[in-house]
Amino acid sequence: MAISIECDDCGKNYKVRDEAVGQRFKCKNCGTPIRVPEQQDEFDDSFHDGLAEMEAEASAFDNAEMLPQAVRREKKAKSKSPNQAKKKRRPSKNSVANGLRCVLAGLLLHFVAVLSGFVPYGLLIALPLTLLAPILAIIGQAMCLKAPEESKTRILIYGVLGLQCLAYGLSLASFLPIVSLLALVASYFLFIYALKRLSEFIGSAEGEMHAEWILYSGARLAALIFGSLVLGALLGPLFGLLFFIVTIATVVISFMILLRYVDLLGCLKDKLDNA
């Protein structure tokens, strides 16, 4: 079998026998030394390359089959996008946000009902709003039970709902009105404290600040009202002017607490919606 070689300088072709492999001779055209190279079997090379690829694929397949199911599940979980992981956590957060919307709606309806009492025929509007406002508030507070367990607010919400039911039950029965009022006030304070805990959990510094302000201002307002009642019992008719001043202060502080309460609910709602 003849071997075909070519001169690198002038490009002249030569054909030599197989026995000349490894020998040198000079080009007859330009005199450049030419060495006869060893020929490789292209079929054998391609066969070995293909065999190596098949062995590599078989090894990879065997390794994949030998992976434990737990490892494959872990890889599948890691391959999920962050958006898919968020979708699983969103239902509870959306439920709490919707609950806060209900509480906010109930609060605003109660405020409108109070203002309606100062206008002619306002009682026709105030009465249904007065009945609807606490229902919305209780529904919203119950929806806040969907808060994550790590926030440690569920037990507080259960306490809020229990106090609300006690207060409205005693009020409907016209039994122990003072106890009913105290239970209602205690439920509001407990709910504010639950919102403070929720603010800490979701990282809302603004919500935490609003909740602390409401708690402190509410405590001062309660002390002011209690002190005015004590002074009224002691001073009698002499307490007339001081009672007027205390009443004005009570209205102003209550209105400021209401505004802060609205800001707190809106702040937490926006934080949960964007989480």
Description:
The protein has eight helices and four strands, in the order ββββαααααααα. The chain is mainly alpha-helical and 275 residues long. The chain folds into three domains: 3-35, no CATH class; 42-79; 82-273, no CATH class. The strands form two sheets. Strands 1-2 form a two-stranded antiparallel sheet. Strands 3-4 form a two-stranded antiparallel sheet. The longest helix has 35 residues, at 82-116. The protein is rod-shaped. The model is unreliable at 40-44 and 84-91 (pLDDT under 50).
List keywords for this structure.
8 helices; two-stranded antiparallel sheet; 4 strands; mainly alpha; two-stranded antiparallel ribbon; 275 residues
How many individual β-strands?
A: 4
The level of helicity is: over 70%
- What shape does the CA trace take? rod-shaped
Distance between the termini: 79 Å
Question: Widest sheet: strand order?
Answer: 1-2
Treating each run of at least 4 consecutive H or I residues as one helix, how many helices? 8
Quaternary status of these chains?
Answer: single chain
- How many structural domains can be distinguished in the coordinates? 3
The largest sheet, given as strand count, sense and whether it forms a barrel, is:
2 strands, antiparallel
Taking pLDDT < 50 over at least 5 consecutive residues as the criterion, the unreliable ranges are 40-44, 84-91
Measured by DSSP, the beta-strand proportion falls in 5-15%
How do the helices and strands follow one another from N- to C-terminus? EEEEHHHHHHHH
Gyration radius, rounded: 42 Å
Helical/strand content category: mainly alpha
Mean pLDDT: 75
